[in-house]
Structure formats: C-alpha cells, structure tokens
Amino acid sequence: MTTLDCRGMLCPLPVIKLAQAFPELAVGETIAVLADDPAAATDIPAWCRMRAQELVSADDGRYVVRKLS
User: Fold this and answer.
1) What pLDDT shows up at residue 36?
2) C or N terminus of the chain, fewer CB within 10 Å?
3) Comparing C-alpha atoms, which of 11, 34, 39 is closest to residue 21?
4) Confidence class for position 29, pLDDT limits 50, 70, 90
5) Which entry of 7, 11, 28, 37 is annotated as an active-site residue?
6) Phi then psi dihedrals of residue 15, to 5 deg
7) pLDDT digits (tens, 9 = 90+) for 47-66
8) Handedness of CA 49, 65, 9, 13 (dihedral sign)
9) 31 neighbors 1 (Cβ within 8 angstroms)
10) Confidence (pLDDT) at 65
11) Is 48 a catalytic residue?
12) Closest Cα to residue 20, out of 35, 33, 7?
C-alpha cells in the first residue's frame, strides 16, 4: 500500500496529492492518505464519490482509498 503524508497541508492539497498519485496505482490497489486538515474528512470521501473509487476507511486522519478503475 502506498502512503501519502499530507499532514500539515490545507485544503485542497490532500485531494490534489491523492489525484496526482492515483494514476500510478493498479486497479485494486489501495492508497492511504494521512491528513490532519478537518476539511479532508469531507473532501476525500467526496472525491471518491465523484471519481467512483472506494473509500475503504476513514479513521483519525487516515483515509484508505481503493482504485476501482
């Protein structure tokens, strides 16, 4: 699993970093995003919905996303 450390970055940087890293992932692979910006709790799930990707978990500033396509 790839991990992106976006702690200390403000919105929208964690989502931008996620979007930039996503093309490198294989379908089925997961990526963990570490983000302490409160907006990430809304932004990352919204990005997953808009991109039709799976939000596997969102716990205490750690968001795991699975690439579905």
Assistant:
1) 98
2) C
3) 34
4) very high
5) 11
6) -70, -40
7) 999 999 999 999 999 999 99
8) negative
9) yes
10) 98
11) no
12) 33
Length of the chain in residues, anyone? 69
C-alpha 15, offset from chain centre? 6
The rounded mean pLDDT for the chain is: 97
Number of domains in the chain: 1
Average pLDDT (16-39) is 97
Q: What are phi and psi of 37, to 5 degrees?
A: -75, 125
The CATH number linked to 45 is 3.30.110.40
Q: Which candidate, 44, 61, 62, places its Cα nearest to that of 53?
A: 44
Domain that holds residue 39: 2-66
Crossing angle between the packed helical segments 40-51 and 13-21, to the nearest 10 degrees: 40
